[in-house]
Design brief:
The complex is a heterodimer. By secondary structure, chain A is mostly helical. Chain A has helices at residues 4-13, 21-33, 35-52, 55-58. Chain A is elongated and about 40 Å long. The chains are: A mainly alpha, B mainly alpha.
Chain lengths: 63, 202
């Protein structure tokens, strides 16, 4: 079973590259039973969305 | 250079200077470099004004030019101070070890403080205060980490491109991005979402 630390790294990398089969499997298995890491993943996804919504990037087409 | 022959040109470009400057500062974090990038952008815009067919807004067009200027600036910066990557929290070993503080070795690397759900995080987008906190958090990242993070998230470059650009390995790049995200998450959690982590003690 992967540790929360390993999973947090994988979650971050999943935002930067396509994970391999084994990695995706490990991630899936761990997330099924670990709420903390599920929350962590949501927060990582939120971070990315937040940057897309950054006022400076968002109002680019205002004028 | 702008001349009296085309009076409208400078002013409608000039109107975007403040925006462009903020945009450049967000990624370069250096007033002089940001000024330069904006100056070069406006100059390039004037020079290629004829080629701008008005397919997009002026702002979008200028921002597109600015992005290239920012990349150039980062490239120069990396060339000028490649050794600085070891300074101020950017040491590779330090970067690698950064995440350790969040996990408890004695308990199979469980979270010290288990991340709790952030309630309705999207509502934050409409709040000015949130973005102030966000920028403060982003500004507290070490220089190299911040640069890589900006290239990845603000400019949307792939890690491959970043590696090539900065001459670092993919693994190194992922570690740096991981560090940046862990730090940002922690900072937002503490300063915006009200420390929603709880002790993971059983």
């Amino acid at each position: 079973m992967a540790t929360c630390k390993e999973i947090s790294e994988l979650v971050s990398q999943s935002l930067d590259r396509r994970l391999g089969l084994v990695e995706r499997w490990r991630l899936l298995m761990h997330l099924r039973v670990c709420e903390a890491c599920r929350n962590f993943r949501s927060q990582m996804e939120f971070l990315r969305r937040a940057i897309r919504k950054h006022p400076l990037l968002r109002d680019r087409d205002d004028r | 250079m702008p001349t009296a022959d085309d009076p409208g040109v400078p002013r409608d470009l000039e109107a975007h200077r403040a925006y462009l400057y903020r945009y450049a500062m967000l990624q370069l974090r250096d007033a002089a470099r940001a000024e330069d990038a904006v100056q070069e952008t406006l100059l390039a815009a004037l020079e290629s004004r004829a080629a701008f067919a008005g397919r997009s807004s002026i702002k979008t067009w200028l921002t597109g030019i600015l992005k290239h200027k920012i990349t150039d600036s980062i490239r120069r910066q990396m060339r000028e101070s490649p050794i600085d990557t070891r300074a101020a929290g950017d040491d590779p070993e330090e970067t690698r070890a950064y995440a350790d503080q969040f996990f408890d070795r004695a308990r199979q690397d469980h979270w010290h403080a288990a991340p709790r759900s952030w309630e309705d995080p999207e509502l934050s987008f409409e709040q000015k205060r949130f973005w102030e906190v966000f920028e403060r958090c982003a500004a507290s990242l070490p220089a190299q980490t911040a640069r890589v993070f900006a290239m990845r998230e603000f400019m949307g470059l792939t890690t491959e491109d970043i590696c090539k650009e900065l001459g670092i390995s993919s693994t190194n790049c992922w570690v740096i991005l991981y560090r940046a995200r862990m730090a940002l998450r922690d900072c937002l959690d503490l300063n915006w979402f009200g420390g929603s982590s709880v002790s993971a003690e059983p």
